[in-house]
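> run fold DUF4175 domain-containing protein
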Amino acid sequence: MMFSSDKRPGKDDKEPVTMASRILSFCFAVFLSVILLYLAIDILAAIWGWLLLIGIAVLAIWLGLVFYRRWRDRW
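> ok
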């Protein structure tokens, strides 16, 4: 064949990964995870009051609906 080669795509195409690059990649992933977790906690700390208020409102509406249904179905 005109464009064929003896090399098949697979594991042989990539350079071997050294242990140092694996450790560096792991450290970078842990560092990035810590930063994202810190930002998530910071955002949550900024809006926790609103989340609590919304949760209480949803709970009150749900309890109101449950009591209304029981009161209406009692007859």
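The chain has one domain: 18-73.
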